[in-house]
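Mods, move this if it's the wrong board.
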Amino acid sequence: MRITCVHQGFELYGSDRSFIETVRVMRETWPSASIDVILPRHGPIVAPLELVASRILVEPLWILRRRDLPRLATLGLLTLPVAVGRALLRMARSDLVYVNTSVVADYLLAARFFRRRCVVHIHEIPEGFVRTVLRTLTRWSACGIIFNSRATQRAFAPNPERPGRVVYNGIANPGRPKGAEYCGDRPLRLLMLGRISRIKGQDVMVEAMARLPEAVRDRIALRIVGSAFEDADRERVLADAITEAGLDRSIERLPFAPDPSEHFRWADIAVVPSRLPESLGRVAIEAMAYGIPPVVSDIGGLPEVVEDGVSGWLVPPGDSGALAQRLMTLVTEPESWTEFPAAARRRYCAIFAEEASAAGMVACFREVLDGRSAGAPMDQGSGTLPKEPSR
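Not the wrong board. Structure tokens:
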């Protein structure tokens, strides 16, 4: 059996690690299969993929990134027929094609002609014109669809006859959770992990810290871990904002880490103050796997991750005042959340452990291989999806 897996990235951020885990599930399910991985360029993702893929091939992909749209809509169109032709050849030689995002336009255009062999896994919630383009492209492909959250499914408004499946990203069990460690006798350790971008809300976090009274701020140690995607100016802007707010003593900035486990082991609380919709929120789930309750924005798929007031907290997106108030309560009332670490770990085990995700993914792949539709609704794995968060 020949499987082709296509990914738009090359780093080791959340979507990259999710892709690696999916390829690993394929290898465990079909140990003798030939699995080709297609990437746009070499990067940190290659090393872990080499452990599970048969071949890793670097080829030009027609990726719809917002900043590249003007180029793609003009001179880039000249390369599109060649890219689609290359995708068609790969699909013709494959029994199963897995496309790990809706932004790889050449493969989704080609999928129309091999729709009974192809599955697209959607991890993004685009906005405006980009959403219209990706929604149209996905419908054109007519292939099986896996959504990583209900929020993502709603954003793409799929054909009711082929609504796709919601399968939450599975996160590998990191082992024994940390347990409750904070009792107010040292600085509260906050972790913000992820790419520096307008979406992730590093600026909101800095504003929230600046709003805190100095006495409270001195009781917080914040790590912002991550780098900008080929955008050094954005990193300089963040560094300048921290200095201008007088927060150099409170905030430690660290570069992207291929293995973030040491940061999770250090942290008491994870903070995901996203300004724009996250399709799910892998960092929040990873934190819960370690027994770390997260503070997340009430937007996109993040409310599906956290049970507000039980395993973590929701705050309005972009509201640095509300975030500051939540941080103040965490610092000054540690006794109010002593049960949250254990609750966060339980929620991870019940909903986001990798076994449930693997079962849902493999069920969809088997339908494609059996020649049946991969678009019928289905609960994740053998369990059920959590209830919609109340508003």
